[in-house]
Amino acid sequence: MLILWEHVAPIILLLVFAYLGRIILNPLITFLEKLIGNRKWSVFIIIGLLIIFLSVLSSSLFPLIGRQFTAFQTTLSIDTFAKFLDRLTPVFENILPAFIFNLFSGLVSQFDTVFSDIWISGLSYIKTFIGGAGTVALVLGSTFLSFLIIIVFMIFFLLEGKTFTQTFLQAVSGEYYGTAKRILEKISNQIHAYIRGQLIAASSVAATSIIGLYILQLITGISIPYTFLIGIIAGLFNIIPFVGPVMGMIPAIIMYIVTDQSIPIHFIYVLLILGVFSIVQLIDNLVLSPYIMGGSVGFHPMLIIILVLLGASVGGIIGMLFSIPIAAIIKVVVGELVISTK
Questions:
Q1: N- to C-terminal Cα distance for the chain?
Q2: Half-sphere exposure of 152 (CA within 13 A, CB side)
Q3: Given this model, what pLDDT does residue 215 score?
């Protein structure tokens, strides 16, 4: 695998996504199996419904998101930063005392080059992140081929997952059989609960962000481009505690300020955008967090942030998504080995 890593890595990525699909769909299939009494028919019915659902999305939602991705990348430039400062200055001039505004203007003038460098670095990171998301969708150079192979792998995992586990355990010698079985069960329970919880949280944050921004635009008449994309960014970054809504709020405010508005730009609308994402954070903390914490991997929030940042540094978007599950697996394995040696 190491020698042929360049060729093996895309296949491993497909297997990972197929296994994630198994984690998501298995509760539905188990429920349907209890109703009709046949595992194979349950798998094929759910997979068929999944294909129909994704086909509907591919004709409506996916093209919209794709267009917003492309337009968003085009919008991100150093000219946007200059426009942002030009629009931000009168907003601050209206709300800040004169001496504070003069101090702000002086700092902007003095550190203009520094702020520009920070903006350029941020743009580079965002475009790399977006490019990484595109690479995930085109693992084998074709979205359709990648999707087809993931579906096939997923069917095998759903039908023969228990067989794979038993085959692995049969290869373990008798004295280590109990330890290996406990490790697999604990890893399975923790990872499955964590992934389901994170998917629910990410979907909720993305949906509530998109709905909240659309309602805000409808009521106030302001325009915030790339609303779908902003919501998706907030959902994806929600794997980092407290960061998801913030990562949606920042581009929402920037897009509002740099976009030509039919009504004058005002600080009150910036506060309303902040309010939308505060409500999103509140829903996430009060409604979803208790559920997610029930399947927590047992890491401190600070450690989760460090792991996600490390994963992003090593593997980009893929590293962010899988850094915590990998750390949880290591934790379970080390913990069981320590117990077995006592």
A1: 34
A2: 8
A3: 93
